[in-house]
Amino acid sequence: MAPFRVGHASGTRGSFRAIRTFDAVTLTIKDGKIFYNDRPFAILHPDTLLRDRTYWIMKKNGHLMTNSPVDTFTYVRVTPPDTTPAYLKTLAGTYHSYEANATYRIELKEGTLIVNQIPTGSWKLEPSFYDGFFADGEDMYEFKRDKKGKVVALEVSVSRAERVLFLRQ
């Protein structure tokens, strides 16, 4: 079965995260077409899509590779986001980074995770994949778990710094 044939949706739709950068994408199927960010792809081959001069190639190992005139990225499949209040509540708490000398207090308000940092202010986290969120569309917040599944840390990647560790207090 070819992964990009719309009739075989299970191999096509889903969430993927870049290995090298802090980028994530979700592919969806609607009305017989494959979409990313509400824009359809052209299906060139059973394993190759095209959009805006970028080829999206599904590899046999389940990885997704994008090849554009600028760069090439490899994405791995990740679990889609969980937006249930019970799940989001498990992420709320206080996290501190000794490296950045900063503390974030994460709260659940009206079904949305909010990051509070004094004196910087507060901002919303938008779900991207399981334990992964974005703020302002580009800053990634990824909750880290121990072997038993308990949330123990938060990794923050912004334009100036990647994977800054905030330990749960």
Structural description of this entry:
The chain is mainly beta and 169 residues long. It has two domains: 6-78, Lipocalin; 85-168, Lipocalin (Beta Barrel), CATH 2.40.128. The chain has helices at residues 9-12, 85-91; strands at 14-18, 24-30, 33-36, 39-40, 42-45, 48-51, 54-58, 64-67, 72-78, 93-97, 102-109, 112-117, 121-129, 132-135, 139-145, 151-158, 161-168. Strand 13 (121-129) and strand 14 (132-135) form a beta hairpin. The radius of gyration is 18 Å and the shape is elongated.
Can you give me a brief rundown of this structure?
This protein is mainly beta.
> What class do helices, strands and sheet pairing give?
mainly beta
Largest sheet: 9 strands, antiparallel
Q: Name the helicity range.
A: under 10%
Say how many strands there are.
17
Q: How far do the termini sit from each other?
A: 48 Å
Oligomer: single chain
Roughly what is the average pLDDT, rounded to an integer?
Answer: 88
Please give the CATH class of the largest domain.
Mainly Beta
